[in-house]
Amino acid sequence: MRLLRAALVVMLAAAALLAPVRWAKHPAAVSPREAAARAEAEVPALGVVWGKVRGWERGEGGWWLLWQPAHGAWTVLVSVPDSQGPVAHRLSVVPWLPGARLSREAAGLLVGASADDGVPFERVGRRDWRFGENVLAGAVATGAVLGFPPRPAADPWLAAVAGLLLGGAVVRRVLPTVPSAPWRRVTIVAAVGVAAALPSSIPVAVRLFQAGVRPWVTGLAVVSAGLLVLGAVVAGAFHYPVVSLATPPWWAGGCALTLGALLATVRPMPLAAELAGCRVAIVALPAASLLLGWGTALAADGLREVTALAKGGRRVILALLAAAAVAAPTASAPVTVGLCGVAGRARGEGAWLGAAVAWGWVMGSTLATCAWPAAVWPAAAFLLAPWALIAAQALAQGEGGAERPA
Amino acid sequence: MLRLAGAAACLAAAVLLVRGRGVPGREEAPLRAARALRMLHFEVVGEAEVRAEVDQAMAWALERSSSGRAGAELARGEGGAIRYRVRWSGGGEAVVTANGTIWALRRPLPTDPGPDLFPAAAAQAAAAALPLLLPGWEAFQVRRAESVREEERLWHRFRWSGGAGPLPVGWEREVEVEVAGSTVVSLLRRVRPYGTDLGVVAGRTAELRRLRGVAAVALALVVVGILLAGTEGLAFHERLALGRGAAVGAVVGLLEAVQGQGLGPAVLLGAVAAAAVAVMPVWTSLPPSRWPRGVPVGVATAVLVTLAPTLLAWSGGFMPEGPAVAVADRPWDLAGRAWRTALVEEPLLRGALLGLAAPLFGFWGSSLVGVFVGSLLHPLPGVPLPATVAVAGLLQVGMVVAARVGGVGAAVVARAVCETLLRRSAYPVGVWWSLVAIVPVGLGLALGVWRREQ
To answer: What is the reported pTM?
Structure first.
């Protein structure tokens, strides 16, 4: 029997590890910093100082990278494809920056286009020209017409998750609760971990950098907003404490972890690749997983009480909801599936299962979206580490799990 | 007696704060505009409609470009950033700056505008009209001319460039004159700002907008906290101030709607204010409300904040002297805007935020969070950026003091008083506008003294 359990654990672990790698869609072959080095080597000199790489975003088939000097008067956006294709760039300059007021003929000569095709744009201190795809800011060629891909449309699952979070918070205040001090500490430590990683995770918020806003202001805004949210999470850990009445059986924990990893194949976590490219990913990823797990357990508490109204049909509703989320896989759909799974179990096991699902999803997403070794090995190690605990529990416990008070 | 002397001092300070403040020129604009149009041989007929036009970024850039009050004067005069557009029901339109400089004119095309002129003759006709309308016109030189035939009329457009003139070095004045047939029909002045002056203001404004996002995140979290506290209060049958909340929400919604902000924002702000006030009894850690104490705190805070730009200028920084010029027609708009801000922000920052965070951080720790969030909501663009945020924080500290001595009610009153006094300079010159700012202060002080005597 113990051998069978060990075999099951190994199979589940293998599935959790291999599924995200096997069904990965366009994982990034190189890290954003390597892509930045390639961009700096391949993009022709623009005649202006680029400044530092401020942020990056993973696109369909490559990286979007953004440079901005400390004074913030311009940004350089570069699209670096995974393949050996051309590296496109775009210089965006604030309209008030003084520059040349070229004549139509001079501008046409500079970009090598017919002067008749030029459209002038009078700025405060200079004249910009546009000749089809070629744009001049004063006398500086700005490169291709390039911009970040548009954000996906509104995410209905996100609204559902937000509502369930509020519902979960109310449930934890209204229903009798035995708070778990260890889980509260875990949540606070995770929040502190994310807070410590925030300054190094600023590149993830690349879209917030804009010409005219100095990068330190953008960084300050990102860190401040992040700290406020983390402060709210810490306050939430006290106001709406985790209830931990029992450790789930080994197979439930294993299934949750595997489910999380499989969800990464449905839809990887947004910003997983971007976060993996940051210097403190090794702290940020596990800490973010634990906070996500706390949130999943909270929302699952709400969902559990809502579906409890259906009494016998509760599991059917949860299954249908999960199926609907898989069928319409927006960015928040995997979270919905995960909290359906957690809500299917007892309230006292929610924190463990929520953390397992979130851990599997975050690490699985990193494996599914990144192919460079510095991201893959830590993620694989993080994904495998809990299996050691599960294996130990499987070998030590009976099939039903040992109930223990928190 | 001491109390009475204090109240008198407060009232005197409030009077000093509003005395001589305001944007001039509104009353005189139609007369000046009609006189200018007469110089183009056009007599205005009918009612004049006056509308304020403000290019706030340009006004602040001009303020930054010159030291002291000179910059602010330029914004109202030769810089043309604060102006009034006058339209007559019988035709004709003119733009006059706050200090009376003619900025633009357009007269209706006469039935017989005279014979078409050659460009050189038309330029002479245009130049002949300039000395009457443009002081220091000798500095202007024709830079560009173009002629267009429309139906049977020949139109000429001339652009003169006038250098910097009284504006700081790097700025440039332009004037454009249109001639139809042999009649000058329009004149339009423009100012081309120096990139760095406008850039500092535009850049800081964009940066403050970015930082305001942080405050928005914080307020969103507070609203979530209010929702949860309200739900919990209902579930446990706790005492909620539903009636008071509904009243405050209705007032806020009404003020927002009357000021033309649209129904959506009015409903949203009204609902948020209503919820914040309704759950107030749940947070028992808040000091009890004694609103008359807010009046002197509000006046004192307004005095401190008014001094800040001067202090900043002495230390080599820059901060606009006053808030953005308001486009308003009725004196009570001033009070409406100030009270709306007070009724929405104070229950959130000094009520809900304090109630939510005080169990963890205590009164002063939570207040510090409130000061941080509040100081990001309405700072003015300045140099260095942290200094202007600190000045906005000074106002917030004043409100914390009000909340400490008189609860959320005092903070609301203090904020409304302070905002009214500070915003007075952004509204037109006039006794009624000043009375709107002073009368509530006087009434509040009188009531406070009377209640203490009782």
So the answer is: 0.89
